[in-house]
Amino acid sequence: MNPERSAMTRRQYFKPQPAPTTLKRPVEDTRHGISRTDEYAWLRAANWQEMFKNPATLDPAIRTHLEAENAYQDALMGNTLELRQNLFEEMKGRIKEDDSSVPMKDGAYAYGSSFRLGGQYPRYFRTPREGGPQTILLDGDKEGEGAAYFSLGGIDHSNDHKKLIWGYDDKGSEFYTLKIRDLESGIDLEDVIENTGGSGEWNSENTGFFYTRLDDNHRPSQIFYHDIGQAASQDRLVYEETDPGFFMDVGGTRLRDWIMISVSDHETSEYRLLPANQPDAEPVLVKARETGVQYDLEEGGDVFFILTNSGGAKDFRIMTAPVSDPREENWTELVPHEPGRLILSVIGFRNFLVWLERRDGLPRIVVRQRDTGEEHAVAFEEEAYSLGLAGSYEYDTETIRFSYSSMTTPAQVFDYDMRTRERVLLKTQEVPSGHNAADYVTRRLMAPAPDGELVPVSVLYRKDTKLDGSAPCLLYGYGSYGITIPASFNTNCLSLVDRGFVYAIAHIRGGKDKGYTWYDDGKRGNKTNTFSDFIAAGRHLVAEGFTGHDRIVAQGGSAGGMLMGAVANMAPADFAGIIAEVPFVDVLNTMLDATLPLTPPEWPEWGNPIESEEDYRTIASYSPYDNVSAQDYPPILAVAGLTDPRVTYWEPAKWVAKLRTHTTGDSPILFKINMDAGHAGASGRFSRLEEVAYGYAFALKVVGKA
Fold first, then answer.
1. Measured at the alpha carbon of residue 88, what is the angle toward residues 87 and 92, in degrees to the nearest 5?
2. What would the CATH number be for the domain defined by 3-12+32-92+434-702?
3. InterPro entries, alphabetically (predicted)?
4. Which residue, of 100, 346, 384, 643, has the greatest Cβ tally within 10 A?
């Protein structure tokens, strides 16, 4: 590759425009005897807690700067308006606008969700158990009418099917309001509970429910019980977590006999139980938290099934314990640990135990008959695919539901008889504008990393795409928190693939694609493996003739946005452009700020630079904002949401400002911020497509196909 030609190729498609000038107000910070100066710290709103709840309180100077950034990206991307509209219409044309889920049975009814033609938000409905007319329980379009942002939270019907808990967020800050709907009248009761996690769990008598309340720092620190009809101020505090480093949630069981309070960070977990028919009972601890030990509880009638990594079971094993006394000393091993087989989740039924596992980077479902111990796996044949286990609302059933797709195969929903092994196809994802799987090829490559590890790369392209290095490529990556990016069907990316792109997913370390060790090898002191894996994936695609470095556009969001910032610093000449969505790029400053919502719970993932000089130096060595240097960066698009509590808007705002003062070339650095949304971007399904179209237009532009 000729670096000079590459630089010309990737920037010549943007009309020069003066970029916004960001004021410098240096702030010095010294930790562990190490001093840093942050010239753009002023972009962090001093009243961020208040602003998340009321965006109108944002400092006018900050608002003016963000609006100037939006005007700049509008000017540079102005000539893509027609392309973006075309992309939007294509992607919209692949969506069945009046789509509906396959209702799932529960007692006398079956529950599902659907969209109306032109609708942005889902409607929730039910039918008689064996089919019949739909009754709309909640209409998202009606509830969100007139809101600049609207997102539904959890929807949970009561055990007697007479009431519904539902939650919504109308600012993007993920502070959800809970309401209770009477399903006979369709009218919401007077009960309104604010600042919640977005869902509730009914007691067995359907007279009240448990929920998580968020504190001012957006942390789920308390579990409350609410009696229907009483004021929220009178709700009983059930449990309070005093350690800000732990997330907390409350759930139930399909037998509706237990309430489970889970407390966890990224490597340690703990459960408390109370009977669902005794909401005033004190929660009983199952196993006290032990750093590095994780466990999950699943009902099993007279036993609990326990999925855990205790006893050195790195890829997890399954235990049982009597419901009468489920403490650790009573745990008995049922499914032993098997290195390389990562057990992801477990579902218990009266006669069967089902789990989802991953071997060699691919998922599979295993069914075990409880009385005989006989096991079988639900098999699939494609080279790369995605598998989801939906389970069932009901415990006393021999039918489970799962979904299947691949990069070429639209999503399919099956019911599976665990005893007869009969698989019934209930639904295949419709692509109204048409889709012929035979026109496309999906492959699984193995890219050699610098240390010899082989990084899986899932690839999709049209059969008629020339693999001579001339095709452009969108390379997507994430690589954190153990999250695995599935090789699933994605109708949106077909707009690129049909224009000659190769679409690729790099299954890099930091995820659990190749087991738990794959995750461990991409966190804390091993974090740089995530970045070098991604770079290796791109170089392998070039070496194998799929693309060229001056044609690769890298994309990642959130922690994947941190990946984008890191590879921009480490290998800028490898990419024609970089799309960083809600990018976690100011890692060191964020991990040093214990008041931010996710900072204490994130320390197990990244390290605690407040307490540890070693962690400080490790994070400082790769934090994208801290490692911007004088070099020729490719065109970069950063996207953010003003009320995002997960990756605050000021992280990309500061990063973009610093990039512009350091880049030695003239490639544009764009910052697009949604002033009415948070971490997930626009809330409506079609509004979200407009954001996808914008990113794709940027990708097409930097490779000369706009």
1. 120
2. 3.40.50.1820
3. AB_hydrolase_fold, Pept_S9_AS, Pept_S9A_N, Peptidase_S9_cat, Peptidase_S9A, Serine_Peptidase_S9A
4. 643
What confidence tens digit (pLDDT) does each residue in 303-333 have?
999 999 999 999 999 999 999 999 999 999 9
Residue 655 structure tokens: 């990063």
Spell out the CATH class of 147-293: mainly beta
Cβ 168 vs Cβ 143: under 8 Å: yes
> How many Å apart are CA 621 and CA 661, to the nearest integer?
20
With the CA atoms of 190, 222, 201 and 395 taken in that order, what torsion angle do they form, in degrees rounded to the nearest 10? 180
* 161 is known as an active-site residue: no
Indicate which residue of 221, 558, 623, 683 is catalytic.
558
Rounded-to-integer distance, Cα 332 and Cα 320, Å: 5
Where does residue 438 rank: exposed (0-12), middle (13-18), buried (19+ CB within 10 A)? exposed
Please check whether the two domains, 3-12+32-92+434-702 and 147-293, share a CATH topology.
Answer: no
Q: Encode pLDDT of 53-94 as tens digits.
A: 899 999 999 999 999 999 999 999 999 999 999 999 999 999
Which entry of 158, 403, 644, 683 is annotated as an active-site residue?
644
| pTM of the entire predicted model | 0.93
Angle, CA of 427, 432 and 438, to the nearest 5°:
80
* Residue whose C-alpha is closest to residue 107's, from 362, 452, 416, 394: 394
Answer yes or no: 679 catalytic: yes
**Any catalytic annotation for residue 644?**
yes
Torsion of the alpha carbons at 391, 396, 398 and 399, rounded to the nearest 10: -40
Using CB atoms within 10 A of its CB, is residue 28 exposed (0-12), middle (13-18) or buried (19+)? Answer: exposed
Structure-block tokens of residue 529: 């493996």
